[in-house]
């Protein structure tokens, strides 16, 4: 069963990042990374064509209150959303409180361990503060960077699915899970 999420006034910190709700002032930073070829496609969407498109997404982030802005050195470099998982596709988990996470990072910051750090902090928030039992996270089969972020944070491949992207392409994806017991057994 999906949990209710509202990150209003929630600020999470890591060694290098601040994870916080989105603000109107983040538009330029969002457009800067979301308009770069190769970034959005890894998450199933095409590069933003203009700031108006980014503004629509920014307004959605602000209104829905489910997505963190990832701030690094006072600049937003990505996002990490806490979404609803498909309860019909994963009905075997109906008795467990759960959610799905998804993330995207500016190409300029790939390979620095920042997303692994952000995901680790959100996992802690979800298990410790929101008392979830299970977290879902997917990645396209060919997205090795996302796969590594998930592996480093203890996620295990669970099920291969076909995912329809926002640009109407069907891509083979892995859905991975992290359950509370596995998290509790691996806390450092």
Could you give a quick summary of the protein structure above?
Helix content is 28%, strand content 29%. The chain is α+β, with helices and mostly antiparallel strands and 188 residues long. A hairpin with a 2-residue loop joins strand 3 and strand 4.
Describe this structure in words.
This protein is of the alpha+beta class and 188 residues long. The chain has helices spanning 27-34, 51-64, 114-129, 144-152, 180-185, and strands at residues 12-13, 18-21, 67-72, 75-83, 98-105, 134-140, 156-164, 170-179. The longest helix has 16 residues, at 114-129. It is globular, with a radius of gyration of 16 Å. The protein starts with 11 loop residues before the first strand and ends with a helix. The relative contact order is 0.16. The model has no long low-confidence stretch (mean pLDDT 95).
